[in-house]
Amino acid sequence: MLEDVRTASSTLCKALDHYVSTCSKLCDYHLQECAADKTDELLNTVANEIRLVISYEEKLKKSKSSINVIRNSSPSAVPISTLPPEVLMRIFQIVADDQPEILDTTNTPFKLSLTFPKYPETLSHVCKRWRQTALASHSLWTQIDLVLHHPLGPGFLSRAKAHLKRAGQLPLDICMIDPTLGKDYLPYGKPYDFDDYDFLIFTETPMRSLGLISYHGLHSEHCGFIEYCITNCARRTLEKLIINDATGRGGPYRFIESADRFHDPKTLQIELSEQMLECFWNSASILRLSTLYPYWTSQAYHRLTDLRLGSDKTQSVPISEAHIFGILKASPDLRALHLHLDLTESFPENVPIETIQLEELESLNLSAIVVDINPSQILRFIAPGRKPLQLSISEEPTDVVEQFLKRANVTQLRMITWGNYPPFKLLNLCPNIQILVLDVWGNMNSVNFQTVPERGGERDSDTPVNVRSLYILRCEGIGMIDLQNLVQNHSVQELTLWETYPKVGADSKRNAYKPEVCALCPVVNYLTRKEKSPVDNWDRF
Hints:
The chain is 31% helix and 21% strand. The protein is built from 13 helices and 25 strands. The two termini are 58 Å apart. This is F-box domain-containing protein.
């Protein structure tokens, strides 16, 4: 066999040399034919040869692929091939999990790009052993991504069907994405729409997570997808539910309830009994929802570890204080709590408020620019544990906020549009703070920037609190001297500016040059509006 390969290679080499030489001579022949006005036969021959050369290239690529498969299977040439299958499977899983998200958003939801995933498919094309290993690792294939209104939609659908065949009986992670506002926008009703989800065959395969991300509000296709998955999924397998209406346009429904019994006229009615629907919700531990929710008294809100309701970018659904209290009490192990809803129907003033112990709480986001919620309304319910806490609040802090900070171990604090309240009051209540985010959303003069008490004033004997990382966002009119004082007073090691352009000089007419800003601190991140917010992960859905 090896001798056959050598003979074929030698013959091919000689033939290629002869072919290249002949094609070169054809150029001289072309000049002669043009002079004699005899080009028709020559051009026909050239056109035919171009088609043949393309076919030769394809055949050579196939040969190269076969040779590479053999090489990649050789432990001496590729040391990773010596690893046992279970180690190789683990590496494959890390590579697949670590690849970029298929939907890339900038700091605005109106700029999107969708890319087709490389893994795990590419891993199965390297060599025979890798293919066998990848196909035997069913957990590699449990991610099912569906895309609406985009040219890549059919490719994602074919990929989803292939993944289903390879996932075995493992629970699936299913996500529908509608990137309608992207550069490849396709109007509704055009190609690449589909509403037949029977290929998901939930009677055989359970569902671990269900996700919907739409940049075009919530329409019948989206709600039909959610309804199908809930109706047909095996009971007690769902762990995570994500419904993200990223643009806030909303849709015809606000709640998801059983058709047998529902509380709101704007309800997506599921053709399951109330008991069966509650059984479906009962296993979930992570809910991240905007504009469409299980009703507030549902079992969906029991025993959660991650709860994110509403978004500052979306239309808000009202919720009463009593419902919030009931939800928090039913999930004492919450690690993340983000609330961006219109809070209505407060408890009567004469009713004593019981505090709820949330020992595991690590992330608490109550910031609001659009929705009607005051952080104090929620903080008075919560008795946090001693775990490091990331806290995000808006509006002018009250004594309720101050009392909460005394009880909590806040290590990361974001203040948004805090009015005349001096930030040093909160900093003095956070002795372990490492990260401070001041999100101004306007001119520096619209908020109080006093982070250090005045001499002779309140707690003037206190040493200013050290802050490792300081973020100043969306702040107009701040001067270089202001930044310098902040950095020096709090021994800042990392300074991040976003949509913030400090002024220089007494007249404050000139923006500081980047080298001037970078000289303020050991590490400086000077970001423009075109770049993603540096605290985007604080609000990540």
